[in-house]
Write a structure and sequence with these properties.
Layout (H helix, E strand, L loop, with lengths): L3 E6 L4 E6 L2 E7 L8 H18 L7 E8 L5 H11 L7 E6 L9 E8 L2
Parallel strand pairs: 4-5
Antiparallel strand pairs: 1-2, 2-3, 3-6, 4-6
């Protein structure tokens, strides 16, 4: 059985866990809480990219993405950023929904699962 590698761990959570050839990311949010959905989406996806790289993979290897939005009014603007970010021909499965996020300043949270290289 493979060992589990936990990345950026504290007492409550790991930002990523690697088990075998799979990488599981915790929810990634923006750094700028006051930003609009376009900027928050860019920042959250940049964090996904960073965590995937730290786990030894990249967005071309994404298997599944969950997008949580504060309001579905942000759906089209979020999709404009997301669609430009996804690697053509390698779109993962995706679910998107309206969720009450832990901090109301966040407009988006992104959770992902990827295969390792």
């Amino acid at each position: 059985m493979s060992d589990i590698t936990r990345i950026d761990q504290n007492a409550r959570r790991s930002r990523a866990s690697v088990f075998g050839d799979l990488v599981f990311l915790a929810g990634q949010v923006a750094d700028t809480k006051t930003a609009d959905i376009t900027q928050q989406t860019k920042e959250a996806l940049a964090k996904v990219d960073d965590m995937l790289a730290r786990a030894g993979t990249d967005k071309a290897r994404l298997l599944s993405v969950q997008v949580w939005l504060k309001t579905m009014d942000d759906f089209d603007a979020m999709n404009a950023v997301y669609d430009a970010w996804v690697v053509p021909g390698n779109a993962p499965t995706r679910a998107c929904g309206k969720v009450e996020l832990a901090d109301p300043a966040f407009r988006i949270e992104v959770i992902a699962i990827a295969a390792r290289k």
